[in-house]
Amino acid sequence: MARKSGSDGKKTAQVLRAAATRLFAQYGYAAVSMRQIAAEVGVQAGALYLYTPDKQTLLFQIMDRHMDDLLQAWKAESEKPLPVPTERIEQFVRFHIRFHLDRVDAVFIAYMELRNLEKENFAKIEAKRRQYEGLLEKILADGRDAGRFNLCDTKLSAYAIIAMLTGVTTWYRNDGRLSVDKIEEIYLCMVRGLVSRGAALKNQS
Amino acid sequence: MARKSGSDGKKTAQVLRAAATRLFAQYGYAAVSMRQIAAEVGVQAGALYLYTPDKQTLLFQIMDRHMDDLLQAWKAESEKPLPVPTERIEQFVRFHIRFHLDRVDAVFIAYMELRNLEKENFAKIEAKRRQYEGLLEKILADGRDAGRFNLCDTKLSAYAIIAMLTGVTTWYRNDGRLSVDKIEEIYLCMVRGLVSRGAALKNQS
DNA sequence: GTCTATAGAAGGATAGAC
DNA sequence: GTCTATCCTTCTATAGAC
Prior knowledge:
2 domains; DNA-binding
């Protein structure tokens, strides 16, 4: 009642997704109750059902929006004109690290809660993930065709690079020894090696 | 009763851990009930408590044994005499991929269910994980000191390599285009590039 | 060593008042 | 738009029979 004047449907919906994202990331989808989420939002459990038909849809929406954000953000980024000495791969590495470090909770959920999605929802998220992987694969194939990269395997290089870049989210801490910029540089350095097979082979005994 | 003659405590305990491992990996710790596990084992829910004091201990034991197996298996592997042209890093890459592909369920749990461990249990598993990371870090540092590797960053190279190697478990399928042996070779090729910074730099524009 | 039965707590989701 | 109250289900864990 007293609350009514200050409440706002749109806003509550946002707060709900934010709260669910935080809790799902921390404790896991299955371990979090609607009552817990409601407490975080500041409403009673029943009120949540004004904003989501059920818990499963809430999870799916979080993951689906996350994937859309990712694809959309890369689209915007890749349409920027590239400063001359910068390669696409550098742009991708920096983008991926920054984007994922800014959203550790959603990233965690997107990778960990796939198994809690119903079959149909799972397929939708998987398709978007594959689409993103395909973007990197294209960058790698283009670089290979232009003679700039010497790949061990195109698809597996894409998988490996995404795995190592996303892995940053598991150990990064704000108060760690490395700035985000420095981390980007180190990973770029490692990725450059990874896509330069011939060079590495020359080094072998 | 009829069952009594064929039952065996030691065996049931093993079957229990195997069943729990499979179910936790598939649905997640929090989503799996003791009743489900009991059904998989072929007993009633109450009987499980003869083999574990509670669900949490069951999870911890699975993860703890997995880490012990990993550390023990690498110890055995690394004590074997190395065939002459083989480097430690090759041995590690091949070992890590094979070990993890043989235990996808336990690996999945070890990485995904950390957040469901109580604080004290979490610390124990984390310590063992760090110990394993340290083994690779040592291999990298030795190679660097011997002039065989040119690393972008020792610790981050270890993180990156473990992340990309473990990532194989997320996409590998028995009926895929690549044999395990071929996968090992491709990842070895990529790792060789990753630890050969100087070579890669020469390639840059 | 395993079963049945159950205590006691907590879960998702809905109904109806305000 | 939110609350209170509640239905019905499911959960972990225990007690006691066999």
